[in-house]
Design goal:
The complex is a heterodimer of chains A (about 400) and B (about 425). Helix content of chain A is about 35%, strand content about 15%. In chain A, strands 1, 2, 3, 4, 5, 6, 7, 8, 9, 10 and 11 form an 11-stranded mixed sheet that branches. The two termini of chain A are about 35 Å apart. Chain A is built from 15 helices and 11 strands. By secondary structure, chain A is an alpha/beta fold. Chain B is of the alpha/beta class and about 425 residues long. Chain B is about 35% helix and about 15% strand. Chain B contains 13 helices and 15 strands. In chain B, strands 1, 2, 5, 6, 7, 8, 9, 10, 11, 14 and 15 form an 11-stranded mixed sheet that branches. In chain B, strands 3-4 form a two-stranded antiparallel sheet. In chain B, strands 12-13 form a two-stranded antiparallel ribbon. In chain B, strand 1 and strand 2 form a beta hairpin. In chain B, helix 2 packs parallel to helix 6, helix 3 packs across helix 4 and helix 7 crosses helix 13. The model of chain B has no long low-confidence stretch (mean pLDDT about 95). The chains are: A alpha/beta (about 400), B alpha/beta (about 425). At the A-B interface, helix 5, helix 6, helix 7, helix 8 and strand 4 of A face helix 3, helix 4, helix 5, helix 6 and strand 6 of B.
Chain lengths: ~400, ~425
């Protein structure tokens, strides 16, 4: 399949002017940076055993979602996302700026909301004990489901909550579809701004690792990392992903719009490209990633690659084959520190790339296989890459603003 | 040679293929005949037992069989049927090789009760918990469920079936999803990224839990005794919407590319508008400003004034709230002209096809332009005096229609409007 064309790179320069991050390693850019610098990892090998997850590091939700009533209307994935969207708006200096927020475009990459496991469990047990009596499911669902639970589950209601809590109302679009949703959120927002269809956009996603119903979905094909944690590149003998807890949001805007309001850029988002190989024969993902690489634009060499590699097979080996074709780029797998965050993983990568460029350093490697190596100089170009666990390949070029 | 770009210098976006499936039937011909005859596709649900439920009717598509039933399986089948009709009509590309990207509006996907209960049985315990389910989930026995219940599952299948290019986008803007899929396609062509896009919207999600979810939000009609007259948009005695299934598909092309290959032009997407509402998760802002702004954004994107619109294909769900707010929004923009513009709701006949509605209704809007005939709002016996629309009551009407506005509004503050014409302006 041929790649999705990007907008004409260089038509309108697009800056990343706001970053919101809240993860298993804490919240905010300083705490995230410190954790990465110290190679800190937060994993839980017990509560979801045999599965390993990166648990959410609690925050004070009140600081970004002041109304308790709003918090109660959300499940965890929505609270994480709505909270982090607020951090991104703060970071860009537009929190509460109703003139901008009212015309700000929004694309959220979302899965769906938590099920009520207690209700599910009670119904499954009642069904089993009644020998699956007809009508029992009707009766129990009618009486047990909270009426507003649906609103905490609907994919587009993360964006809906961000509109309600933060007032972002220019437009509201929600992309679904696992890893690719995050790539396409960035790709479409960039293309719209570059083409003058939009001036400023909020993009992002959130993921909650502590959901047994989602572990179940991925367990159907044995994708979950079991028993004990290992860095992404050290999982070849025991492949799998450890689900992560991440909210990752970015404010993107045209250079002219940012300059007019005196906003400081973290970095420039130069290009985002995506494709979806069928993955029917070995080598397709490697070839797909290599084709995307050739579409990114001019690469100066001696840059860095931040990948959302999952640690599942065969895709991680295919991605490794691609990475080994670019030995002059320092590699980092975001999954080692943050776990795998599906829809949010690519946007997390963009956030880490923009943060690294703004700090003038790439965070240190954390990899016993030594694929990841130290990078001593300040990165001016970082490629964000990702091959989804089942579908989707995406790539972006994040650069220092010249 | 006619201009290939609109007055804003953007490529003109035209429709060269369309397909539709609803509870009335498969295909444009069947749907249009029944729609203009004022027939209803709403019926008593037979897919699953409805005892104990407040609502037991829906516009299910029962003539396309998927066994065993799951919402993504039916959504996929509906989407394939509509997309195939659209691509066939457009006569574009070759089989399994559509020359552009896919934008798919699709309902959120999740593991469903039959699957959950199947796993529960497999645990061999009466007191099974999610830990027990997890214990039996792995090993490959249920591998197919991973593929099926991914959010990107339906778009992945469609991308393969039709050979669309690049990364297929699955999107949800709730009940505005169909319009959003079309808007994304329009924008891609205007940016020059592609000469053609396949925009599909599908919804096959009438299952027990989804029906109960909407029922618990008090959104559904409970006129179970008379399914065909349950959907009553704009009537004083409306009591909610009727869940329904269906799919709509459009092949969009740049005017330049369509004319160059000699394609028949079925209509023009001259404008799209959107605006989010921050008032409430399920209710519109009482001042109507987001709907007003959305409609104005669409007019402004099309570069026309409200006086150019001569038919409005309403969102018209038949909930007390929606119809009232839609009237407020439309009448605020259209002023004195409001009572003179026909405004009808297809949902009175096909029900509310949710994620598919925006595209299904775009197809019906294009058929209205083609046939110069406006489908009625049926079940309109008791007018709501507060809603002074000409709803084209109960009988289709011949009319001169040059520009149609099609509106879609959804939970989560979603508002989207499309403007369609027969010819480039």
């Amino acid at each position: 399949m041929s790649e999705t064309k990007s907008s004409k790179p260089g038509s309108t320069e697009v800056w990343i002017t706001g970053i919101g991050l809240a993860t298993s390693l804490g919240e905010g850019l300083d705490m995230t940076w410190d954790a990465l610098s110290q190679r800190r990892i937060n994993v839980d090998e017990k509560n979801f055993a045999p599965y390993v997850v990166h648990p959410w590091a609690p925050v004070n939700f009140d600081s970004q979602i002041p109304k308790k009533g709003d918090q109660r209307q959300m499940e965890a994935w929505q609270r994480i996302g709505t909270y982090t969207a607020g951090l991104a708006l703060d970071s860009a200096g537009i929190k509460g700026n109703s003139e901008i927020l009212a015309r700000m475009d929004m694309i959220v990459a979302a899965g769906g909301g938590e099920r009520d496991l207690a209700v599910d469990t009670a119904i499954m047990q009642a069904a089993a004990k009644s020998n699956f009596a007809p009508g029992l499911l009707n009766e129990r669902l009618m009486s047990d489901l909270r009426p507003t639970l649906f609103l905490a589950q609907l994919s587009n209601l993360l964006a809906g909550n961000i509109a309600i809590v933060h007032g972002v109302t220019g437009s509201s679009r929600t992309f679904m579809g696992e890893e690719g949703a995050g790539v396409d959120a960035a790709r479409i927002a960039l293309a719209r701004i570059a083409a003058g269809q939009s001036d400023i956009a909020l993009i992002g996603g959130s993921h909650n690792s502590e959901r047994k119903e989602m572990l179940m979905l991925y367990e159907f094909d044995d994708f979950n990392l079991r028993d004990r944690f290992a860095p992404v590149w050290a999982r070849s003998s025991r492949p799998g992903f450890a689900l992560g807890a991440v909210g990752a949001f970015l404010v993107m805007e045209s250079r002219a719009h940012a300059q007019a309001r005196g906003a400081r850029p973290f970095a420039r988002l130069t290009n985002v490209v995506a494709d979806q190989a069928r993955r029917k024969t070995p080598g397709e993902v490697t070839a797909s990633l290599q084709a995307l690489w050739s579409k990114l634009g001019k690469l100066d060499g001696h840059g860095a690659i931040i990948t959302g590699a999952t640690g599942v097979e065969p895709v991680t080996s295919e991605e490794l084959a691609f990475l080994r074709q670019h030995p002059d780029f320092a590699i980092r797998a975001s999954g080692t520190a943050f776990g795998h965050n599906m829809e949010a993983q690519f946007i997390l990568g963009l956030a880490l790339a923009a943060l690294s460029i703004s700090r003038g350093a790439l965070f240190p490697p954390n990899d016993p296989t030594a694929l990841e190596v130290e990078m001593s100089k300040a990165p001016s170009q970082i490629v964000v890459a990702g091959a989804g666990h089942w579908r989707s390949e995406g790539m972006a070029l994040v650069e220092a603003v010249k | 040679m006619a201009a290939t770009h609109d007055k804003f210098g953007r490529p003109i976006v035209v429709v060269t293929g369309m397909g539709v499936v609803t509870s009335l039937g498969a295909g444009k011909a069947d749907n249009w005949a029944k729609l203009t005859a004022g027939e209803s596709g709403i019926r008593t649900i037979t897919r699953f037992p409805t005892n104990g439920l407040k609502t037991s009717i829906a516009g299910t598509v029962d003539f396309l069989k998927v066994e065993p039933f799951s919402s993504p399986d039916l959504s996929q089948k509906l989407a394939e049927t509509a997309a195939e009709e659209a691509i066939m009509q457009a006569a574009i590309g070759t089989k399994r090789d559509f020359p552009g990207p896919l934008f798919l509006a699709v309902a959120p996907v999740e593991i469903e009760w039959p699957n959950r209960l199947e796993l529960g049985r497999d645990t061999g315990t009466l007191d099974c918990t999610y830990d027990d389910l997890l214990r039996v989930s792995g090993g490959g026995k249920y591998r197919g469920y991973h593929r099926r219940f991914l959010f990107g599952s339906v778009s992945d299948h469609l991308a393969e079936t039709f050979g669309t290019k690049g990364s297929p986008i699955s999107l949800s803007t709730a009940c505005a999803s169909g319009a959003s899929a079309i808007q994304l396609g329009v924008e891609a062509i205007r940016r020059g990224e592609s000469d053609a896009t396949l925009c599909v919207a599908t919804d096959g999600s009438v299952n027990l839990e989804n029906l109960i979810r909407f029922s618990l939000l008090s959104a559904l009609s409970m006129r179970n005794d008379a399914p065909q007259s349950a959907a009553r948009p704009f009537s004083k005695n409306r009591d909610g919407f009727v869940m329904a299934e269906g799919a709509g598909a459009l092949v969009l092309e740049s005017y330049e590319s369509a004319t160059a290959r000699g394609a028949k032009i079925l209509g023009v997407l001259i404008g799209c508008g959107e605006l989010a509402d921050s008032f409430h998760r399920t209710r519109s802002s009482p001042d109507g400003k987001p709907i007003i702004g959305c409609v104005r954004n669409a007019l402004s994107d099309a570069g026309i004034g409200p006086e150019r619109i001569d038919y409005i294909n309403a969102h018209g769900t038949g909930t007390p709230e929606n119809d009232k707010m839609e009237y407020l929004g439309i009448s605020s923009v259209f002023g004195e002209q409001t009572s003179r513009i026909p405004v009808s709701s297809n949902k009175s006949m096909v029900g509310h096809t949710l994620s598919a509605a925006g595209a299904v209704e775009a197809v019906f809007s294009l058929l209205t332009l083609e046939h110069q005939r406006i489908p009625p709002t049926i079940n309109y016996d008791v007018p709501d005096p507060a809603i002074r629309f000409d709803v084209v009551p109960n009988k289709a009407r011949d009319a001169r229609v040059t520009a149609v506005m099609s509106n879609s509004f959804g939970f989560g503050g979603q508002n989207a409007s499309l403007i369609l014409t027969r010819e480039p302006l």
